[in-house]
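Input sequence (250 aa), recorded before submission:
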Amino acid sequence: MKAHEIVSEVLKRMAATARPGVTGLMLEDVAIKVINECGGHSYNKGYFPSWATKPYPAATCININHFIAHGVPSNYKFRDGDIVNIDLSVVDPDGICGDAALTVPIGDLNKRTERLLRVAANTTYEVIRHIKNGVLTDDLARITQRFVWNHNLLVNRRFTGHGIGVKMHEFPKIYSTIEDGQVYETLKTGDILCIEPILTTGTDDIGVTLDDGWTVITRDRMPSAMFEHMVRVTDDGCEVLTTHFSLDAI
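Predicted structure, token format:
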């Protein structure tokens, strides 16, 4: 299986497992099993970028409610009304990376959180609709920022989408906001990108890292949601490679 197929299958199986009483460590076990069945291996586990204080300890990132990113799987039992963002990267037998994510509702959500998930998913697709050969990445940032603002939510300024290939994070960076010092690039046919704007209902669009060195949360403890697809840039649009979520299912 190709990397995008593996990561899609893993996410589908994890999402189907997530319900009240399930833990992040249980989802981690599902992920490892499916990755192995598909002939891949985890990119996340042991990932040690230059900014980190220690390697990442798991195959998945499990972000619960106000967790923004890099949540380490734990024994916390999901409760009715929680949201769980599942994010992971894999490597296929050819050495190519796949990276994708989705946010899963646990039981019944309140209307505000339900809307957050719906707008987060729509934001990802709004960016995808504007991707094609020759598009500038700063245009995508403006589109993302304006779309989220128009829905009275905030998009995270700290994390970006990215190119992907033999490494999980490659250029170009796909920013979600316009900030000083950002370097923008022109998309080219054949580029493989990960589109992953992160939204919150609160006032913190940066987040803070916990003492574990990895988990990033919103300072105001307001919920955060993200949906990530892999796409291939074409001359007149893009092809969505991953299949783990669609707008019809949100």
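Checked by second reader. The first strand starts at residue 41 and ends at 42.
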